Amino acid sequence: MVTGPALRARVSEAGLAYLLLLPSLVFLATFTYWPILRSIYFSFHDVVLGSNKIYFLGFENYERLWTDKLFWKSLGNTVFYTLVTIPCAITVALLLAVALDSKLRGMTFYRSAFFYPVMIPSVAAGMVWVFLYAPGYGPINSAIAALGLPKVEWLYDARWALPAIIFMSIWKYAGYFMLILLAALQMIPADLHEAAKLDGVSAIDRLIHITVPLISPTLYFVIIIGLLHSYQIFDYVYVMTQGGPADATNVLTFYIYQNGFQYQDIGYASTLANVLLLFVGGLITLVALVFGRRVHYLGR
Amino acid sequence: MAEVVLQGVSKSYQGKPTVHAVDLAVADKEFMVLVGPSGCGKSTTLRMIAGLEDITAGRLLIDGRDVTHAEPQKRDIAMVFQSYALYPHMTAYRNMAFGLLKTSSLSKPEIDRRIREAAEILHITHLLERKPNVLSGGERQRVAIGRALVRQPKVFLFDEPLSNLDAKLRTHMRGELKRLHKELGLTVIYVTHDQIEAMTLGTRVAILSDGRLQQVGAPMDLYMRPQNTFVATFIGSPEMSLLRCAMKPNGSGSVVSHPAFTTHVPERADAGEILLGVRPEEVIVGPADGTALACGRVDRTELIGSEALAEIVVGADRLVARTPVTKVPPLGAEVGISFDMERVRVFDAASGRVLSRL
Ligand SMILES: Nc1ncnc2c1ncn2[C@@H]1O[C@H](COP(=O)(O)OP(=O)(O)OP(=O)(O)O)[C@@H](O)[C@H]1O
Ligand SMILES: [Mg+2]
User: FRET label pair with A260: which of A25, A188, A192, B110, CA 20 to 30 Å apart?
Assistant: First the structure.
């Protein structure tokens, strides 16, 4: 049994721990949990921004979702964006990482070069790509014309605007994922690859059967991080297309922004935000169920 | 048939020579041990044979075919790594099957048959479904050997495969390796820094020092006829004592004079400094009287089971003598010592090379 001073010591140790946790708890509560609760509350009301008026609506906002074509479109765009961007970016990142995981000269240079896009602020990157994609004078169209192919209006063409944003996102994400995967690759003992090489196992087979399983915890991490980042895509859309043309690039976060701050309909914006939260939660759970089990942790 | 020939094989890292023109011929079914101190280039040499390191200069032939620049998988060799290099996410069975499944045209039943057979030989049949992380060091070692066996390669390369095992298991696995080599008629090149392992395992032993091949021969040959002081002191434990003497030709042999004694050896060479090499068992310890060659003082004694070792100071030199436990001289005692003159060797002090006996 713990008695007297020992008990006091233990209590005060726990007390100290709570005391030290308090600031971050307060912070989290103020800026995360309180807003979530508020948005759930708002989603059942009609809120007018800037005034204190608030009217109870019940499930009206949620019923509205079913018939709101733009909601479904922006949800579809978000899903499409995520499901193309993340797998592509991870594949590119993995191939880059494998290529850069060699002891050849100049590798430090290439690593920095591929990581560079990550360091550019997304708004700045967006501006640069607006220029690159520009229909008349943009370098990408010039290159296409030089190849004798027909020019594309990129961000002004409803068919190409979302793929164009996806392409630049892959460019931006790949370097980040590459760096994380490269660190994981370098943890794999070299002799595993040497043993396979001696056996004559091809580079592709080694990638599939040795490299990927051994970095699966990191791949899993990268997939989750990627999903968390990509469903929040807002800045590129805001800077590059404002959701256009014809809502071809309207994604959920942008639609939330439009409802909340352009149409001043906080109640409906909150409803959308809650749906987004549920959607992402579901997606992450699904990923965890599908991939979580297959992750192999080096049991050494 | 499997014959490995190194012709002037050299390796430089960033222009820094690491292995110097090694000439070595490993015969079919031979157990060749490469031994030498840490950093002497054993692993580098083995990895060059495997094709994991480029050969800077020289030629490598396997069965008469020049494979100097061939890809590792074209050399028909298997290697067992010091770290075992088992794939951690695969079972023992899958570890052994993986290479064959991916690269050979063997049918699944044939692969299965080979794995079961190898497992039988290595006594690991009951471990096949386990992953490496739940295997002990010795078990992992066997799986790694099994993975090499199922390939049925021409040549087996081992890089310090036993150094992660405890002493008892090491002795046991040594015996197992010897048995495998004999029963299966394998051609083996085996790297170790442990001279006892080299002596007990090798049909022949190649001694490396500073990237240079010092001597190649049967274990007994190396022990009895070392070509230089490096080999002389590297092989044998405790090591051979070297006594610095002056030598003058005399009659059919030479007179060797040490500050503490003068004696006659059959070797002949121009006058100069020599090192007289005496192994512990070639020192005869007796009473300090006129019958002994020299007198020395016992500085240290050590019991090693059935025998004892005595370190004796003779003039400016020290030497180690092996004595029966019943005759250990007391510490500090003055004792007389003589040498088994038939067996002592004479080395040139400047070059370290042995002087040939006439
Ligand atoms: N990739 C490399 N680059 C530069 N130097 C290297 C490289 N690999 C090995 N060396 C050097 O070459 C020398 C021989 O190395 P090697 O690994 O062959 O030694 P070893 O005889 O196997 O030693 P040990 O018994 O410690 O394993 C060492 O001095 C080592 O530092
Ligand atoms: Mg080594």
Answer: A25
**What total of structural domains would you count in chain A?**
1
Distance (angstroms) between ligand 2 centre and the Cα of B44 equals 7
Sort out which chain A residues have CB atoms less than 8 A from B87's CB and list them.
192, 195-196, 210
For residue B346, count other CB atoms closer than 10 A to its CB.
23
For residue B44, the ligand closest to its alpha carbon is 1
Tell me B76's DSSP state.
Answer: -
pTM of the model: 0.81
At A145, is the pLDDT very low, low, confident or very high (cuts 50, 70, 90)?
confident
Which parts of A101-259 fold into alpha helices (H)?
107-119, 122-133, 139-146, 161-185, 190-198, 203-206, 212-214, 216-230, 235-240, 252-257
Determine whether the shortest distance from the Cβ of B47 to ligand 1 is under 6 A: no
Residue of higher predicted confidence among A61 and B333: B333
User: Quick one: DSSP state of residue B151?
Assistant: H
List, as ranges, residues 34-53 from B with C-beta within 8 Å of A. Answer: 50-52
Given a cut of 50, whether residue A299 has pLDDT beyond it is no
State whether A202 and B102 contact (CB < 8 Å). Answer: yes
Determine, yes or no, domain membership for A49.
no
Percent of chain B with pLDDT over 90: 66
pLDDT tens figures, A147-165: 888 878 888 888 888 899 9
Is B154 near chain A, with CB under 8 Å?
no
Domains of chain B: 4-234 (3.40.50.300), 241-348 (2.40.50.140)
Report the CATH number at residue A264.
1.10.3720.10
Three-state secondary structure call for residue B81: coil
Task: Give me the domain span that covers residue A91.
Answer: 63-294
